[in-house]
Write a structure and sequence with these properties.
The complex is a heterodimer of chains A (about 425) and B (about 270). Chain A has about 425 residues and is mainly α. Chain A has 17 helices and 3 strands. In chain A, strands 1-3-2 form a 3-stranded antiparallel beta sheet. In chain A, α3 packs across α9 and α15 packs across α16. The longest helix of chain A is centred in the middle third of the chain and has 40 residues. Chain A is elongated, with a radius of gyration of 32 Å. By secondary structure, chain B is α/β, with parallel strands linked by helices. In chain B, about 35% of the residues lie in helices and about 20% in strands. In chain B, a hairpin with a 1-residue loop joins β8 and β9. In chain B, α5 packs across α6. Chain B starts with 13 loop residues before the first strand and ends in a 9-residue tail after the last helix. The chains are: A mainly alpha (about 425), B alpha/beta (about 270). Chains A and B meet through α7 and α8 of A and α4 of B.
């Protein structure tokens, strides 16, 4: 708690730098990443992040300094060349996109590692720290770097803001965009440029290898929560900012913990939570829905069985033994016990020693399901011309789905029928 | 040589001159030469792989031409873009894209808006009106992945309608849609043609050609015929269009590809 207060009071300017820096980096890569993600170009981030390495090394070799602006220019150029090479391979050879991506990534990264090794063994004293680009070192963000990265992050964000509508259209339907006269080549170039810029700044924090995660994870997580691009971008940047602060805090509270990898960890946790719990798309919600439907089916099928027994004997509220139910429909004993317990809790049946009987509500519900079943059987034979002995199974499913509105329409269409294809009565 | 089955018209809405297109160096359209009158409802008919979509894409400058030119209202596409509307094939986009129905229809207004400007109230009204025309106004908020095929097609048509163009190109608008949608779309196209707009539709259902179109283009790698439906839509010409590809033409195409020749030597 104490460290938390200490951290957020920004007592030390260094903390301020790091927090501010990591937040900007992660927000700008999250925003750009949304477009990479919806364009299904997720691997492009990986290509760029690996391909900037030779640029950084060459610009260091040429200038002999670690001036962040010079390094960024080098990184920017080699990132761009990698993309051009990749596109050229796809367009001019039979090599497909996945292989071209891998080729471009590994060749450029290979050259980068080669140059990096050469620099490290060259005895140049200024080189120490250049390898932070490989694994990132967010905690070492200082004044001048921060300046450079903030400017770039702001440029990236303003560009997305200005071209939002155009980027959206070229991501969704580039052909239409071209026909209405948008300069799609130039727009694609701008989008690629800011992607390269976001990656160049981001690798300072998390390094070459983890950079793709910074780009794609916030977007992928945000997609689970919304169906609107604008909200998706907003959410992704919130996730990004949160991961930036958390990463910075964790490495502050536990100095042996690295900032960048923790940022990625936090993002991954957010993505996992989204994956499982997001409303609508989350796995848990979907499983839960499936589970409750199965429960509903069991209960309704039981009530239908009760109704049939009553229909056969003429007394709908008679006491029914388990065996009588099994004669109508074969439930597994465990299911039967579970279903009956649920029905009793919900007030649809009551128990008398080893027998069960319907309550008024249970009777009404059983009647309605039976009615829907028979209405649907009639509909199938009349309108789909299915033979009467083939309609039962289908009606067994549909009876649970039909809403009162559909029921009314069905009745009207069938002209308020009184009996089903098997001449059983359709109860009112 | 004059050809009775390829009717050229005065003052055409669309004129294609000596158009050749190749994919992966293999020619898929050979020397197309045609013109269609303004205000006509025109169908492009031909078997699968005949190059129907490619023809529209060439007109829209979406694929490179080896030779020839296309003129719309006697001008190049770049000069008349605002008068042209294009409805791509439904499958050409990812419908899981995070956008609502209204978002997609508004895209039709982007050209008018220009860069840096967001859709205004008037644009939204125009989009809603277009949605009303196609009977989708109730669904304006819906996420596009939740639409049926027919609804997707209606949304695409609504997007085109917001452009208020003079010539519309539709690529297979009736493919995989329900009967009600087909009828609704056809009625809208008919109304547009009634207002003097020119409509060009890639179509594959021979049954409905005579009811739908007053002008047909019969295509199978080469132009078989182009003219008023009454004169052109004959069993003999259909036989020529559908009766197998010209094997000689296909084989020469393969040779062009293997030899890496250019389909046309540059002048």
């Amino acid at each position: 708690m104490e460290t938390l207060i200490e951290f957020f009071s920004f007592k030390y300017p260094n903390i301020k730098y790091v927090v501010f820096g990591t937040m900007l980096l992660s927000v700008s890569s999250a925003v750009v990443g949304c477009f990479t993600f919806i364009k299904k170009k997720s691997l492009v981030g990986d290509v760029i992040s690996h391909a900037v390495l030779p640029g950084i090394c060459i610009s260091f070799l040429a200038s002999g300094s670690k001036d962040p602006f010079l390094l960024i220019i080098g990184a920017f150029i080699s990132g761009w060349i990698a993309i051009i090479v990749m596109d050229a391979i796809i367009q001019n050879t039979k090599i497909k996109e996945d292989a071209a991506t891998g080729l471009s990534l590994s060749v450029f990264f290979g050259i980068g590692i080669l140059l990096m090794t050469y620099i490290q063994h060259s005895g140049n004293a200024a080189q120490s720290g250049l390898d932070t680009f490989l694994f990132g070192k967010a905690a070492a963000l200082v004044g001048k770097d921060l300046m450079a990265f903030s400017i770039i992050a702001v440029v990236v964000l303003i560009t997305v803001f200005l071209f939002y509508k155009e980027f959206k259209l070229i991501s969704f339907d580039p052909q239409f965009a071209k026909v209405i006269g948008l300069p799609i080549k130039r727009l694609e170039m701008i989008l690629t440029s800011i992607t390269v810029l976001a990656v160049v700044t981001g690798i300072q924090a998390v390094g070459v290898v983890l950079m793709a995660a910074m780009l794609i994870t916030p977007a992928a997580a945000a997609r689970f929560w919304t169906n609107r691009l604008s909200r998706m971008i907003l959410l992704a940047s919130i996730f990004g900012a949160f991961s930036g602060i958390s990463g910075a805090y964790i490495s502050y509270a536990a100095p042996s913990m690295p900032t960048g990898p923790w940022m990625v960890m936090v993002l991954s946790i957010i993505a996992l939570i989204s994956f499982f719990f997001a409303p609508g798309r989350g796995i848990v919600i979907r499983q839960w829905r499936r589970f409750s439907i199965r429960k509903q089916l069991l209960e309704e099928n039981l009530l239908k069985a009760f109704y049939r027994i009553g229909e056969n004997s003429g007394d709908h509220f008679q006491k029914v033994a388990i065996d009588d139910i099994q004669l109508i429909r074969n439930f597994s004993p465990a299911q039967l016990a579970k279903g009956l317990r649920k029905l009793r809790v919900n007030g649809y049946v009551q128990r008398n020693n080893e027998t069960w009987f319907l309550t008024g509500e249970g009777f009404e519900k059983g009647k309605r399901i039976t009615r829907l079943h028979r209405l649907w059987e009639l509909y199938l034979t009349k309108y789909l011309r299915i033979a009467p002995d083939h309609v039962h199974e289908d009606a067994d499913t549909i009876e649970h789905v039909i809403t009162p509105e559909l029921e009314a329409r069905l009745e009207k269409l069938l002209e308020y029928p009184t009996s089903d294809p098997h001449l059983s009565e359709i109860p009112k | 040589m004059t050809n009775n089955f390829i009717k050229q018209v005065e003052n055409p809405a669309l004129e294609i001159h000596d158009l050749t297109v190749s994919y992966d160096k293999k020619p898929v359209l050979w020397g197309i030469d045609l013109s269609i009158p303004q205000g006509s409802l025109c169908g492009i008919i031909g078997p699968n792989g005949a190059g129907k979509s490619t023809l529209i894409k060439a007109i829209m400058d979406l694929v490179d031409m080896n030779s020839g030119y296309v003129k719309l209202f006697d001008q190049s596409l770049d000069d008349v873009r605002k008068r042209v509307s294009y409805v791509p094939q439904r499958e050409s986009v990812d419908w899981d894209f995070p956008a609502s129905v209204l978002d997609v229809v508004l895209m039709g207004r982007y050209a008018d808006l220009g860069l840096f400007r967001n859709p205004r109230k008037a644009d939204k009204e125009a989009a809603m009106k277009a949605l009303e025309m196609v009977g989708m106004d109730k669904y304006y908020k819906r996420q596009i992945s939740q639409l049926s095929g027919g609804q997707q097609q209606r949304v695409f048509l609504a997007r085109a309608l917001t452009q208020k163009a003079d010539i519309y190109f539709l690529d297979e608008p009736f493919a995989g849609v329900d009967a009600a949608t087909e009828k609704a779309i056809f009625r809208i196209l008919q109304d547009l043609a009634g207002e003097g707009k020119t409509i060009v539709v890639v179509h594959h259902d021979l049954q409905s050609v005579e009811t739908y179109f007053e002008w047909v283009i019969l295509l199978n790698l080469r132009l078989v015929a182009s003219g008023p439906t009454k004169e052109i839509f004959t069993p003999a010409l259909l036989e020529e269009t559908y009766g197998g590809k010209l094997t000689l033409l296909t084989e020469v195409g393969e040779l062009v590809k293997e030899g890496e020749f250019k389909a046309r030597e540059k002048q």
